[in-house]
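Final report, section 2: Outcomes. Of the targets proposed, hydroxymethylglutaryl-CoA reductase (NADPH) is the one most frequently requested by collaborating groups, and we therefore present its record in full.
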Amino acid sequence: MSDADAKNPRVPIPRDRDNDYTESAAAMRRAFIQERTGASLEHVGRYSLEPGTLPGNIENFMGVAQVPIGIAGPVRILGEHAQGDFYIPLATTEGTLVASYNRGMRLLTECGGVKTTVVERAMQRAPVFLFEDARAAREFGEWLTEHHEQIKQAAESTTRVGKLLHIARYPLACNLYLRFNYSTGDAAGQNMSGKATHAACEWILAHYPKKIRYVLSGAIDTDKKHSLLNVLQTRGRRVVAEAVLSREVLERIAHVTPEQLFEYRQLTQAGGIMAGSAYSGAHAANALAAMFIATGQDVANVSESHAGITYAQLLPNGDYYWSVTLPALIVATYGGGTALATQRECLEMLGCVGQGKADKLAEICAAVVLAGDISLTSAILAGDWVSSHDKYGRNRK
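The predicted structure is given below as tokens.
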């Protein structure tokens, strides 16, 4: 131990070894932080949830971060899983955001609604196997194909709902990168796919006739990171939201014309390509972050989920077709934070509690993204983007 360490020893956060998920344990940690930092934790310590419900969601619990929730809607959704008019909970601290989404939802609803479609599902874990040369890696890839059913059985032995769909192969130098693709039911599935892939790799290690080694993640699963691979091959759910916007409604509610929208679409598409943007629309991350916080999703998944492509057509009758494709939307209605008190209530608002509801939630998320893009784009073109933020989005107290 250095002299500096001896003078300033590390003071660990206090824990209750018998039961660390109690109000007394949380109060003990708040008192510890107050004593060491001088920060008042009066509001952090006010909450209605039961600490005993938190194992598996957080460690060293001491309180809550309260994020305001606003309601937007209704938005009419014509999905295969989400059908009807929905009021949307948005947890955010950004002024004007809820109002903007509310306007976009009104416009979509008056135009007949937004059609939503889940077109593909997949969650990945991507190990890399290491060899002495490229030929050995190629030989191993051929062996994988011959033993796919046994590998699939080993992977699926760890889960009740996960199913191994296929294993993609990416050879590089003397290594073979694999991408195990799973369906994961109503769970987001990162942990599920990690556990299943580990079991599969251990089976491979035990049965491949030559000595090999692997690393469980070679980074091409791009967990919590955006990647072009996810855009092309899907991670989570690939969802499309599309609507035909009538000229009359656009002019009356948004104060823009289809021609203005189409011209602006060309400008932003070119600008987005030049910038290398992960999303070619206005702001998918705003909708997804606000919905993820409200409904107990893993908020870090916004880094992947916000990526997407908008596509538009100026129709012969003068109306405007607008669509958003989200190729890596990662949502869950089971597991993770979805069972916590306030998050469950928000899922109940959407009719998305429990198993069999993740596709419905994905369709709702895509519809909300489209509503937000319509409203923000129209505000920019109509000239009230800055003025609305200046009037409603400034809290300087």
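The chain has three domains: 18-66, 69-120+227-392, 127-215.
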